[in-house]
């Protein structure tokens, strides 16, 4: 980085200049602290405050050709990388944070993010991508390391970014059909506990359960229930229960018998290993059919929270995507997690 020159100027000539040091204000018996920090660009309304603190002369940085102030640099980074549904805040000590403008799926182009942070003197940090975020949540921030950064460095970043590095995708309001399997529930031996949980979970994502059908362990009955929801125009179908490998567990076979094409059975996610993802053809196109293991019913966060928001955001989920969930897919349910932000969204 080029050296910055410092000079002394009268406060009345300081508008537009960059402060070299913090300016402290003391209110006797009340407070003492910086009223302006190093790097602050002096505004006309600041002159009165500076004079009140006893500052008639200031140390400021001499403007240098080809150098950009940290606030302006952060604004240019934001303009280059930010996609839809993100609102930048005001610069604060050179940093601009990004806030979600709606509920949705946070999508981050991680390779592009890594390239940006590898340029040197430019930093950007985000939450884990592919998680559900609510409107108003801060999801990322960016700033440059020096007070002034070379124009060429910013141009390098701007030339390297061809699509949004970070964006929030709104979720579709899906109509979800629920098929609950198990003779113990179908014959009334125990009360179904899955339905209320799923209604609550989908409601939190802006979707609704259009209906719930109870079936026994008969493959044909469950397959017929899936087909019925398809004909009714369900946007998504979830099948609960019977996802383990016990002889009486017939749910995967029923999903296959319904005509759905199974994409994957099993996921490297705990809780949620016995997860199944399939697609069926409905009147309006492909419909995801999910086989949900029992853990979804009683764990606060599970495979449900990693997959369903992606599907509602219209993101194609492949078998490779599911396989990649192993890194970060372990949740011990502990109150103090090793992750700064839990990939399960807890």
UniProtKB/TrEMBL annotation:
Please give the cofactor(s) recorded in the UniProt entry for this protein.
Mg(2+)
Q: What is this protein called?
A: Molybdopterin molybdenumtransferase
Q: Give the originating organism.
A: Desulfovibrio desulfuricans (strain ATCC 27774 / DSM 6949 / MB)
Q: Which reaction does it catalyse?
A: adenylyl-molybdopterin + molybdate = Mo-molybdopterin + AMP + H(+)
Q: Which UniProt keywords apply?
A: Magnesium, Metal-binding, Molybdenum, Molybdenum cofactor biosynthesis, Transferase
The record's Gene Ontology biological-process terms are: Mo-molybdopterin cofactor biosynthetic process
Is Magnesium among this UniProt entry's keywords? yes
Known EC number: 2.10.1.1
Pathway noted in the entry: Cofactor biosynthesis; molybdopterin biosynthesis
Mind telling me which PANTHER family this protein's record contains?
MOLYBDOPTERIN BIOSYNTHESIS PROTEIN (PTHR10192), MOLYBDOPTERIN MOLYBDENUMTRANSFERASE (PTHR10192:SF28)
Main function? Catalyzes the insertion of molybdate into adenylated molybdopterin with the concomitant release of AMP.
Q: Which family does it belong to?
A: Belongs to the MoeA family.
Domain MoaB/Mog, first and last residues per copy: 177-313
Q: Which GO terms describe its molecular function?
A: metal ion binding; molybdopterin molybdotransferase activity
Could you give one GO CC term from the UniProt record?
A: cytosol
């Amino acid at each position: 980085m080029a050296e910055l020159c410092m000079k002394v100027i009268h406060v009345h000539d300081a508008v537009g200049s960059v402060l070299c040091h913090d300016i402290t204000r003391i209110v006797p018996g009340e407070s003492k602290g910086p009223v302006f920090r190093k790097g602050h660009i002096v505004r006309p309304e600041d002159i009165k405050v500076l004079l009140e603190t006893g500052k008639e002369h200031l140390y400021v940085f001499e403007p240098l050709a080809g150098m950009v102030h940290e606030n302006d640099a952060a604004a240019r980074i934001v303009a280059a990388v930010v996609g839809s549904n993100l609102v930048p805040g005001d610069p604060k000590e050179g940093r601009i944070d990004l806030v979600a403008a709606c509920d949705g799926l946070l999508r981050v182009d991680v390779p592009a993010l890594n390239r940006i942070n590898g340029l040197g003197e430019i930093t950007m940090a985000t939450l884990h991508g592919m998680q559900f975020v609510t409107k108003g949540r801060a999801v990322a921030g960016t700033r440059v390391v020096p007070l002034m950064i070379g124009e060429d460095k910013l141009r390098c970043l701007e030339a390297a970014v061809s699509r949004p590095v970070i964006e929030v995708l709104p979720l579709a309001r899906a109509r979800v059909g629920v098929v609950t399997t198990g003779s113990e529930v179908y014959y009334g031996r125990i009360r179904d506990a899955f339905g209320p949980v799923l209604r609550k979970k989908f409601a939190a994502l802006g979707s609704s359960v259009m209906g719930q059908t109870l079936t026994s362990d008969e493959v044909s009955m469950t397959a017929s229930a899936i087909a019925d929801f398809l004909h009714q125009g369900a946007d998504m179908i979830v099948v609960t229960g019977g996802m383990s490998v016990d002889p009486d567990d017939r749910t995967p076979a029923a999903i296959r018998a319904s005509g759905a094409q199974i994409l994957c059975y099993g996921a490297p996610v705990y809780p949620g290993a016995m997860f199944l993802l399939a697609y069926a053809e409905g009147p309006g196109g492909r419909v995801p059919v999910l086989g949900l293991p029992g853990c979804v019913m009683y764990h606060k966060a599970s495979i449900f929270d990693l997959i369903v928001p992606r599907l509602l955001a219209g993101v194609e989920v492949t078998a490779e995507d599911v396989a990649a969930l192993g890194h970060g897919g372990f949740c011990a349910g502990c109150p103090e997690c090793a992750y700064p932000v839990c990939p399960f969204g807890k």
